[in-house]
Amino acid sequence: MSAQRLLNKCLLRPEDLEPSREGFRVVGAFNPGAVRWGDRVVLMVRVAEAPAEKREGMTGLPRWDLERGLTVDWLPDEALALQDARMVRVLDSGMLRLTSASHIRVYASPDGRTLEPIELARLEPHTELEAYGLEDARIVPKADEFYVTYVAVSQHGAATALATTTDFRTFRRHGVILCPENKDVVLFPRRISGRLMALHRPNPSLHFSPPGIWLAESGDGLHWGGHRPLHAGRAEWETGRIGAGAPPIETERGWLEIYHGASAATEVGGVGVYSAGALLLDRDDPGRVLGQSAEPVLRPETDFERGGFVSSVVFPTGIVPLEETFLVYYGAADTSTAVVELWRDELLASVG
Ligand code: MAN
Questions:
Q1: Nearest CA to ligand 1 atom 4
Q2: Are the CB atoms for 36 and 146 separated by under 8 Å?
Q3: Strand pairing report for 254-262 and 274-281
Q4: Which of 154, 156, 158 minimizes the C-alpha distance to 200?
């Protein structure tokens, strides 16, 4: 049984935003990192753009050029094979390209429940390792600053990079911390036995097991080791794809992690259904899984979750604890940013 949804609404849609360049359209404003910041909630939203222009028999593939910024490579349709709405394969080279390129825009919500898209800052690709975009920020507070992990995509693959900030206006960028292909990296909000800990999701090309969530540790947040598998999806709804979602929240019973899982695609060019589940990890040794929700706690149900750039996706990326509830921020259908309020007790009961 899915969790009861208290407040549930779409906070931001592509049509609320202006493209960053002429000749582009915003196709997604989704997968928001979220964190409490004083009285406010900061959202770091992934903004995906695609070429506005249509050319007969051609496909425009966006890319960030180090000198020119957001630009388009036009390729003849017959040189490409469509993988799904998100990417194509270039037949000559066999390599993948994304059909949209993302960057990250920063907003502050006064109450976590409403959003005026007044931009505080923008993170755009600025290295070769970011040429296909910046995606899916996750934010945790650390002493007097915030750590932001995000996906850096390029011809070298999808890697995870780290940025830090104290004010959400300027960011210090530390570069790639986990090499391709690795995304869905979320840090634990405090050190455990003196170590920084992270959940991550390596995606090997040889599959000896279904994709899984791993645990890693670090002294400084830049150098990671102690890698070990934590949870591989075994239930039907999480065997296609899996990954950490929102940063773990500490409760009296352990770390509560809201993650995503996708069912396997049923057709070529299809994408499985993305749902959210809950895991409970030991407080002192998060490598010990204490419980898992038998069923997803959220499945795509509303119109904005079922229809969009990729249909049937709920993709949790941020969480803000309140007294008896959590505000969970998520991407809906790879298109919009949404929030849902869930009972804390119900989530904890779901993990057994
Ligand atoms: C997957 C999806 C896309 C994303 C690419 C690259 O295909 O998560 O949204 O753009 O990976 O990270």
A1: 86
A2: no
A3: antiparallel
A4: 158
To test the pocket of ligand 1, the residue of 135, 179, 203 to mutate (highest count of ligand atoms within 8 Å of its CB) is 135
Coil, strand or helix: which one is 116?
coil
How close is the Cα of 100 to the center of ligand 1, in Å?
10
Give me the pLDDT at residue 145, please: 96
**Which two three-digit tokens encode residue 135?**
């995606």
Confidence band of 73 (pLDDT split at 50, 70, 90): very high
Burial of 253 (0-12, 13-18, 19+ CB in 10 A): middle
Protein residue with its CA nearest to atom 8 in ligand 1? 86
The pocket around ligand 1, CB under 6 angstroms, is made up of 86-87, 98, 135, 151, 153, 158, 334
pTM of the model: 0.97
State residue 207's pLDDT score. 82
| Interatomic CA distance for residues 248 and 188, integer angstroms | 6
Distance 284 CA to ligand 1 centre (A): 33
- Of all protein residues, whose CA lies closest to atom 12 belonging to ligand 1? 158
Residue-wise pLDDT tens digits, 129-148 = 999 999 999 999 998 899 99
Does residue 57 register a pLDDT over 90? Answer: yes
- 305 upstream amide cis, omega within 30 of 0: no
Nearest CA to 258 out of 334, 173, 346 is that of 346
Q: What is the CA radius of gyration of the chain?
A: 19
Q: Phi, psi (5° rounding) for residue 151?
A: -85, 130
